[in-house]
Write a structure and sequence with these properties.
three-stranded antiparallel β-sheet, five-stranded antiparallel β-sheet, 333 residues, 14 helices, 2 domains, Aminoglycoside 3'-phosphotransferase, Chain: A, domain 2
């Protein structure tokens, strides 16, 4: 990545399209192996410039398709540079997490979750649009093979913290993983776009309108919609201290499922949600591996060593716990 070239391109575009820059230097917003973001203070408000690794550069076209064809609440991209893998977008507010840290507002987050699920539902009958541009196909029937391919990367798994014994144990769970995928497929929930990083820090809120915008769409895949929602709920627990028993948390779970209640009964949706909780760890592991390949193994491991192996370890633990719960439910029924 050549930061100077990226900044020069952003400045040149803005100046040649009528913007006045209020500062000669842009402000750094984020600088990680997977995302470099700066912002320009201009005569038309803040303009953000984002650069990603080439393997995540689909973010521009994904965002444009969602904006133009599905009228989704996503950033308005004003320019992109395919050679530099970067794009310019208009300011859409501040992260919802900042607002919730000041005072947690379950209703505001529920509103955003509801709008996200409506976007997922709108796309569900048109996933080929995204598959055709190269968005990864992680639908449930593909997950077992993707899991096997991941477990075959033993050098990476060992370097990230798994033992030979743990890898062997994970391999024995492949048939059970396949059975769970088939079971989840029996529910009338269409697979659609899934955002790995759907959480309150990637939801922008404009003030005073309270309009919602979803950002950071470069890691979208086609898979089960609940994966995004479970990831969001886990982040809420981590950053806002909620537990499964809190009224605010239960309110958020209902917001996740509300727009799917036209397809299944409430009970079946909760059952599907429990199954997805187990499979989420595999989805998360695949997302971490994809990020590792996109950013470079050394770069990512230096930033978040052990995150991939932690998801796989949690899968082993959660599989046993959830299977016990499901067995108890089946006996009661």
């Amino acid at each position: 990545m050549n930061k100077e070239l990226i900044i020069q391109w952003g400045c040149k575009y803005l100046l040649s399209h009528g913007y006045t820059l209020q500062s000669t230097l842009p402000e750094n917003v984020q600088n990680t192996p997977w995302s470099y973001v700066i912002r320009f203070a201009t005569s038309d408000g803040y303009i953000y410039l984002k650069h990603t690794p080439s393997l995540l550069a689909l973010e521009t076209i994904i965002t444009q398709i969602l904006h133009e064809q599905f009228h989704a609440f996503v950033p308005k991209i004003i320019a992109h540079n395919t050679e530099l893998n970067c794009f310019l977008m208009k300011d859409a507010g501040r992260p919802l997490r900042e607002i919730l840290k000041q005072q947690f507002n379950a209703a505001l987050l529920s509103k955003a979750i509801g709008q996200f699920t409506l976007m997922q539902l709108a796309v569900a009958d048109h996933v080929n649009i995204f598959l055709d541009i190269g968005v990864p196909d992680w639908r449930l029937d593909k997950l077992p093979d993707l899991y096997k391919q991941l477990l075959s990367q033993k050098d990476i798994l060992l370097a990230d913290g798994l033992s030979e014994i743990e890898i062997a144990k994970l391999e024995t769970l492949t048939p059970k993983l396949s059975n769970l995928c088939k079971k989840l497929s029996d529910y009338a929930i269409k697979q659609t776009i899934v955002q790995c990083d759907f959480h309150d820090n990637n939801i922008l809120i404009a003030e005073p309108s309270q309009n919602v915008t979803f950002i950071d769409l470069g890691e979208i895949v086609i898979s089960h919609p609940f994966f995004s929602l479970i990831g969001c709920l886990r982040q809420v627990k981590k950053h806002h201290g909620l537990t499964d028993k809190d009224d605010a948390y239960l309110h958020l779970v209902n917001a996740c499922l509300k727009n799917y209640m036209i397809f299944e009964s409430e009970k079946r949706l909760f059952d599907a949600f429990e199954i997805t909780h187990i499979l989420w760890f595999i989805y998360e592991s695949l997302a971490q591996y994809r990020l590792m390949i996109a950013c470079g193994k050394e770069k990512l491991m230096s930033k978040q060593h052990g995150k991939l192996s932690a998801s796989l370890k949690e899968f082993m633990d959660e599989f046993i716990n959830q299977q016990d719960k499901l067995s108890c439910k089946n006996k009661e029924e």
